[in-house]
Amino acid sequence: MRSRLSVQGTPTSDGKHSEAAVRAAEQFVTRKYQVLVHGAGLLGGVGAQGRCVRLTARLRRADRMDRHCWRELRWLRDLFCLQIGDDPEAPGAAHFCALSPDDPAVHDLCLLAEALGDLLAEIDIAQTQVVSEETANAGRDAA
């Protein structure tokens, strides 16, 4: 469920797109704030909760998507997709390991993982389209 980064650019490389990307991410984390912070705590402990809170605050202040926000959004997606919890030595791994698959919260965590993956994929697809349009326009201008 990993979103791919465009080879030509990231969501931080285009002004208009970068602003739209940060607003979409900010709206997402604001709508889902309590369940994101709670889920981050279940999967990664207090450190993960703090990281989620800091990301939300940074997105609310941001006027464009920066590399830090993009990296933290990918980290959050990886946390919810359980791609971080497979290292028993990682900080917060004990929290992930203590979570029972029968816990009712697991279903909500799965839905959040999917929604985070969708958000990052949408941002990445939009960036790929912007880069493709810029490349096409540059080709026309050169001709």
What does this structure look like?
The chain has about 140 residues and is mainly alpha-helical. Helix content is about 75%, strand content about 0%. The chain contains five helices and no strands. It has helices at about 15-30, 35-60, 65-80, 95-100, 105-140. The radius of gyration is 17 Å and the shape is elongated. The termini are far apart. Mean pLDDT is about 80; it is low at about 1-10.
Shape: elongated
Largest sheet geometry: none
Tally of individual domains: 1
| Residues in helices, as a percent range | over 70%
Write down the Rg: 17 Å
Order of helices and strands: HHHHH
Unreliably modeled segments: 1-9
N-C termini distance: 40 Å
Average pLDDT taken over every residue? 82
The number of E-state strands comes to 0
Please report the number of helical segments: 5
* Classification by helices and strands: mainly alpha
The proportion of strand residues reads: under 5%
